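Narrative summary of target 7.
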Amino acid sequence: MCHETRMQRPINILTRLRFLRRKERYSLTVSGWGIILVLLLAISALVVHNLNSFLSPVRPVKSDVLVVEGWVPDYAFHQAIHDFRAGRYRMILVTGGPLEKGFFLSQYKSEARLGAATLIAQGVGRDSVTAIPSPFVIKDRTYESALALRRWIDSLHAPISSFNIFTLGAHGRRTWMLFNEALGDRSRIGIISAVDSSFDSRHWWTSSQGVRIVIDESIAYLYAKLLFHPPNRN
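Modeled conformation, tokenized:
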């Protein structure tokens, strides 16, 4: 007791001098931790279930111009042609950089020109299709394609006030964001994200292809949203 009194005395002095104060502390019980864990699991499940839908928006605007990213697979071109005809577009523009494979064996040299040739071969009128190739860049290829489109629009005597971008699946939201970043207030931009048939888009987490694509695009979107700084390219 005597020892405790000697130990307590300096604490009492410091407390009176307002150098110390007592605070009550609450801690979670086992039940409390259990509720938090259940909530976290529920939120995680909700995010996982809706992640691909978030990355694959379909938000077209009223326009007579359709922009197609030239790298999309053949089956997506079929849907682009259907949308082009059903939407009564007057013009279809195809963007894309140099071919990554088969460049020396292809007469088209770029995804934009190859995509334009694909559309024409499938019955779209030649006068309605324009290829807008972009130069080779190591990174930010989607943004570079958007800049190429911006330069092309700026060269017109009658600016394009609105257009819809046609792309594939989980790439959609990033494409939409970067095209808006590149074109600024020049045009009102809509987005059409075709369904990626390489995996079950409603249950993407059940296949390795779905996990790879959705996770990769999630990381790429976060990079573009938080860390991407548009380079000064005219």
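Residues 11 and 20 are 8 Å apart (CA to CA).
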